[in-house]
Amino acid sequence: GLLLLAAALGAMAAARCPAPCVCDNLRAHVLCLNGSLMAIPDTIPELTKKLDLRGNSFMVIPAGAFLATPYLTHLDLQHCKVERLEEGAFRGLGRLVYLNLASNSIALLYQESLDGLSSLQQLILEGNRIEEIQPGAFGHLGSLTVLDLRANALVYLPDMVFQGLQVLRWLRLSHNALHVLGSEAFAALPALRRLSLDHNELQALPGEALARLDGATRLDLGHNPITYVAEEALAMASLRHLFLDHASLQDVAPDAFSRSPQLRMLDLRENQLQGLPPLAGAGGLARVSLDGNPLLCSCLLRPFHSWLARARVQAEGACAAPPALRGRSLDSLRPPEMRCSHLRPPPSPTTEPEQPRAASSRQCPRGCVCSPDFHHGSCENRGLQEIPQDFPGDTRLLDLRQNPFRTVPPDAFPGLKELVSLHLQSCSIRALHPGALRGLESLVYLYLTHNHLSTLAAAAFEGAPQLAYLDLGHNAFSRVPAGAFRLLPSLISLHLQHNAIVELAEGDLAGARGLRWLYLAGNAIRHIAPAALAPTKMLEKLQLEGNHLSEVPTAALQGLPALSELKLSGNPIKHMGDSIFLPVASSLQHLYLDNLGLEWISPHAFTGLGPKIRSLYLESNKMSNIPDMSNFTGLEILNLEDVPFHCDCQLLPLHRWINKLNLRIGATCGSPAEAQGLKVKLSTTFRTCPGWGQGEAGKTTPNKTKAASKPSKKKRSGKPPAKGFSKSRA
């Protein structure tokens, strides 16, 4: 009887499985991979524990999206084009322990975005474009042990931003653009053991912020432009492993680590150190790695060399000079060999960064709310017609959204030298006057979306040299405000999406030398001048989806050696010729060519592209051939949904290649009639093709490799290998 009941329950659950998904009722798993889902399915079995939705197109996760599946423990939403998490999106998932939101387009985490996840242990947000985290965003995640924020667009961490993460053990912030940390940014993290801050833009050791981490044992600070470690710069009572490799270090003070008594391993590889003083304060140090430094093994190095022997510290490194000692390892040197001839004076230490001044005690403007704990001021939606003043001098985030200001006059924000983030969205602003931001010397984020701006003068940004994120989306620009960015040497991210821009002309981006992310989606761009992007040699992401481009702007891509993501989705590009991505072939990882109405693509269109490509979106097109992609061995996502393939023998190479991929790509036959609607991978129409038996022998199970293998070289039909994965024009 119990068996019959279980079978009945299983049948009921199977009946509710959404059509594009696969349901494993025994393990309570549901997989809906790489499909065309636009919304979270509402017919997923209620008892599902693991839900995998990778590779769909949700854009927004609405409030209460998973209320019908309260037993979920694992949820995977990677590569789902998610841009926004509405407040309460995960409410009801009190059993969830693992949430993966990697490789989406989330830009901002609001206070209630992650509400309801009281049992969550791992949160993966890697590879989004998160620019700002509002304090309180993680306040409901009391069980979280791992938080992964790698490869986002963070420049600044405000005080108490991780409040509520009482049991967090590993915080991953690598590969952002952090150069400002609030002194209390890491407060309230009592259980943290490992902090990863490598590959950022920190110019000095953030000692004050790190001093809050009493229990951390490993700190990664490599690949930051830090030039000097000052006296007592690091006060971390439990720190054992410190990585400062591949920085720009020229000098380290003798007592730099004296307040980190447990330090055992110090990694200083690949810096600019000519030598070190005795690190007398680091009494427990066991190993120092100095490989890749230009060590000058002169008499100035003797004190350090003697200290190594006395303290029994193992040192790795070799002399770069003088010539007689070049290549000699430190542990092979004898003191008499370290002479003072040909001595060059060591570089002088850089001055320490100025300490922040004491906070002002001025009152909060009438009708506004000022938070002394978070250093926030807010007058959101108060009907104000003039920008209020007299905010506390230590205000770091000022929210003035949804007030009809209409204009921002000169010197609109006096006394706010510590302001980092300024929100002026939906304020009916038509003019940003010269000098409007004067005095905002710490400003990093400026949000001006949903206003009526149509032009900007460079003088509007005078006095805000640290501005890194400028959001001008949803305004009335008909062209990029040429020259406006000359006074913004720190600009990293520029948002101009959803304006009315018709052309990107030469000179439009003059001065934007450090720009890394450029968002131009939803404009009316028909032409990009060959030299338009020339000033932006550090550009990593270029988003041009939803414009009026009729061809790939190949000439404009010249000179962009770091470009890793190119979005051309939704442009009316009907044809693609040879080598159109060759200028960025050595760096490109993510390519979006979906919804173009593409009718023809050259077999050589992807020349130069190969193992670096991780995701390729070609869905919703009409092309009559597919270039050979057998060398795309690093593919993680390939989407060929809604392409009406004609499944005849000319498509056999594609069929064979798909069978070697451990990916779901969604390729479906549109014809002939007997194959219509079948997956290309499963269609039986290929069995009549010459060479079918030999090519398909032993292929019942796809290879369990991560990416594509090369097509089989066995050919008995006498035909030459296909140059592309073609479809006939029947």
UniProtKB/TrEMBL annotation:
Its main location: secreted. One of its GO terms (cellular component) is plasma membrane. InterPro entries: Cys-rich_flank_reg_C, Leu-rich_rpt, Leu-rich_rpt_typical-subtyp, LRR_dom_sf, LRR_TM_domain-containing, LRRNT. Residues 16-50, 363-397 form the LRRNT domain. It comes from the Eukaryota. It is found in: Secreted, Extracellular space, Extracellular matrix. Residues 1-15 form the signal peptide. Coiled coil: none annotated. Residues 293-341, 644-690 form the LRRCT domain. SMART domains: LRR_BAC, LRR_TYP, LRRCT, LRRNT. Residues 325-362, 691-730 are annotated as: Disordered. Residues 328-340 have a biased composition (Basic and acidic residues). Keywords: Disulfide bond, Extracellular matrix, Glycoprotein, Leucine-rich repeat, Repeat, Secreted, Signal. The keyword RNA-binding does not apply. Associates with collagen and binds to collagen fibrils. Belongs to the small leucine-rich proteoglycan (SLRP) family. SLRP class IV subfamily. Potential negative modulator of chondrocyte differentiation. Inhibits collagen fibrillogenesis in vitro. May influence chondrocyte's differentiation by acting on its cellular collagenous microenvironment. This is Chondroadherin-like protein.
